[in-house]
Design a protein that fits this description.
The protein is 27% helix and 24% strand. By secondary structure, it is of the alpha+beta class. Helix 1 runs parallel beside helix 6. Bound molecules: flavin-adenine dinucleotide.
Length: 395
């Protein structure tokens, strides 16, 4: 290869790729993002909930228009028998998002920083050449980043590690009007049910553009029928909110890596980030915060490499990716010992609420409303300790 046309080509204009390109462009690198969709905000596959830490700590989200988000104040967690407990932590919240428009906003931000976006352009392979990669019609580059999701083509062509374990997530969005009558509309409603959502949960959230209802479950050898899966979910949550006669306005679905970070996640002049690298919490299946955070950090590490001062430091950099040891252990336990019977009985216990608080809020916290059954008249449960815990450690 002669002089590479680009310092870096990033494949995938989603959270990880746009953050990485933004950081590189701000460091003066010539960076191009290849995205096979013609509009980064179309065909979104995610619920799009942002955790508070992302908004607080990531500069790339500064100035995110308020109209694109809606505050979610806590979690209503349902046992399989649909009794529930409300969880929240002082000062903690989530943000539901108009994810398509958040993505367009992020794309503009990367572009304004100096990145070139080539939309409607799929990555179709790369050949290693002296000093970088030749991507055929897509050009030549000194560095290649795979931010192309759970089934990364970049990983395949560069021989980097690939995700092996997945959850399958599917969500229907209903018109906002269909949220009328839902109790606690400012909460993320999470339903545990081993038959319906083995290894994960179902959820209901009143988002910015609609009422989002979905679930994720382990991928089995048996194929998952999305239509039947959603029908079963709607039947299950009927006592909470009846949507059985509503038509969805949008459907989102996709794989979620849950096996931890791939190995290797980087090699000479190539690096994976976001879902492509398996950087998704194996417990919560949340990946947006980490895709943004590690996308930004990867951009900086690559800029250091390109400036010639850092050797192969980008390879060492991927060792800073989270290992999720504790969360992988929790996933193992959930995969092997999940029991509806046990969950029904344990929902009212301090131990389970503490564990749920660590998972959702990264801290021990208080339960602010007594446990109730949504199928029957509200009945107070015994929790003499009330607001006991606060301010626990990071998991
Ligand atoms: C149903 C569901 C709900 C979820 N809900 C949440 C949530 O509420 N909160 C949360 O934190 N996480 C959630 N997640 C996980 C989260 O969506 C991902 O972790 C996050 O999107 C990862 O971002 P990413 O940039 O790494 O990859 P992706 O968002 O997967 O983006 C990959 C991009 O690469 C592009 N691409 C792929 N192949 C090519 C190619 N060959 N050429 C060019 N472009 C290509 C794709 O079009 C896409 O734009 C959910 C996932 C699912 C499936």
């Amino acid at each position: 290869m002669g002089a590479p046309r680009e310092d870096c080509i990033v494949v995938g204009a989603s959270f990880a790729g746009l953050a990485c390109a933004y950081a590189l462009a701000r460091r003066g690198a010539r960076v191009t993002v290849l995205e096979r969709k013609s509009d980064p905000g179309e065909k979104i596959h995610t619920t799009g909930i942002l955790v508070k830490e992302a908004v607080d700590r990531l500069e790339i989200l500064d100035g995110l228009p308020r109209k694109l988000t809606k505050r979610i104040e806590g979690v209503r967690l349902y046992a399989p028998n649909l009794r529930h407990v409300d969880l929240s932590a002082p000062g903690y919240y989530f943000l539901a998002t108009d994810t398509g428009n958040v993505m367009r906003w992020l794309a503009r931000r990367a572009s304004e920083a100096g990145a070139t976006l080539r939309l409607g352009t799929a990555f179709e392979g790369a050949r290693r050449v002296d000093g970088g990669f030749d991507l055929g019609d897509a050009g030549c580059t000194a560095f290649l980043v795979g931010a192309d999701g759970p089934r990364s083509s970049v990983a395949r062509y560069t021989g980097l590690g690939r995700n092996r374990a997945f959850l399958f997530g599917i969500e229907h969005e209903f018109p906002l009007a269909s949220a009328a009558g839902l109790d606690a509309p400012d909460r993320l409603h999470c339903v545990v049910d081993r038959r319906l959502a083995p290894g994960y949960i179902g959820w209901i959230v009143v988002g910015v553009t609609g009422l989002q209802v979905g679930l994720a479950r382990r991928v089995h050898e048996k194929a998952i029928n999305p239509r039947e899966t959603i029908a079963a979910l709607l039947a299950k949550i009927r006592p909470i909110h009846d949507l059985t006669h509503c038509q969805p306005v949008a459907v989102r679905a996709g794989l979620i890596p849950c096996g931890g970070v791939v190995h290797p996640a980087a090699a000479d002049r190539a690096l994976l980030v976001g879902d492509a690298a398996g950087i998704v919490s194996p417990v919560t299946a949340g990946g947006i915060h980490m895709a943004l955070k590690h996308g930004l950090a990867a951009g900086d590490a690559i800029a250091d490499f390109l400036s010639g001062n850092a050797g192969d430091a980008h390879v060492a950099f991927t060792r800073t990716y989270p290992r999720f040891r504790m969360k992988r252990a929790l996933r193992f336990a959930f995969d092997h010992f999940q029991s509806d019977w046990m969950f029904d009985r344990m929902l009212s216990t301090r131990a389970l609420r503490a564990a749920a608080s660590i998972v959702y809020f990264h801290r021990l916290t208080a339960v602010d409303v007594p446990m109730r059954s949504c199928a029957t008249a509200p009945q107070a449960m015994t929790d003499p300790r009330g607001n006991g815990d606060s301010g626990g450690p990071e998991p």
